[in-house]
Amino acid sequence: MGSIKSVKIRPIHPHAAILLEDAGRKYITVSDLHIGLEADLLAKGITVSPSLVSDMVTELSDLVQSEHADSIILLGDIKHTVGAISRQEWDSVPVFLKQLSAKADVYLVPGNHDGNIGHLVPMNVNMITSKGMTLDDTLLVHGHSMPSDVRGRVKRIVMGHLHPVFLKKGSVINGERVWLYIQARKEDIFAEKGILDIVVVPTFNPYLYATGEKLYHKSISPILTRVMQHGVKECIIVTLDGSIVGDAALLPHIL
Predict the structure, then answer these.
(1) Cβ within 8 Å of residue 190, ≥6 positions away
(2) Is the bond leading into 14 cis (omega within 30 degrees of zero)?
(3) CA trace torsion 146, 148, 149, 152 (10° rounding)
(4) Please, what are the averages of pLDDT over each run of 10 residues along the chain (255 residues)?
(5) What is the pTM of this model?
(6) Which residue spans within 92-136 are E strands per DSSP?
(7) CA gap 146, 141 in Å, rounded
């Protein structure tokens, strides 16, 4: 069995996006777009930009161009409604994916909100299973389920699902999306021993916690639950602009 190569990764500040480079290809990776959230917020009396979906297409297209990327990886929760498909999702998700796939190859890793999303996905979008996508030493998953030991050779997990955002009233960064960089014991997740790096990607949709309040229940990941039970080795919390704001002591304000 040959050795696996190390994938280069870099957050693209100040965007909620990460760049992965592997075997000469570049992948723009984002998570938790929650298309259809707007209708849900409107029902709660909160109005967001009517151009949110087209704004996300523009931002991703600009990143593909500026980073000379070949591909886009969507790490789940493309749509907002769990199980069912709302009218807005029927209208917006296929158009969104069609526009993106005209700019780069698109890979879609389904999340827990993406039930029945196959009905909305154009033929030229690469549907990956919910078990995730592996690029050499890096596993890309949504994060709502435990990875299989078949993926135990990886050294890094890149995931979404948790919507990491700093929530503390009175703080100047209350409601801001953040990155989580966690170092854990590999044996807490896989059968193999060693060190495992976990990168939790902020939600690409800027409106989930735009009010600085918990309008929705925070998502729980069995991956992070397992790691927290056994103790985080190292943790760095970083804002979208790249500022380091804390370590593991601040995780209660995020998870």
Answers:
(1) 147, 149, 151, 152, 196
(2) yes
(3) -80
(4) 79 98 96 91 81 95 98 97 91 96 97 94 95 95 91 93 89 90 95 94 86 59 92 94 93 83
(5) 0.94
(6) 105-108, 126-127, 133-135
(7) 9
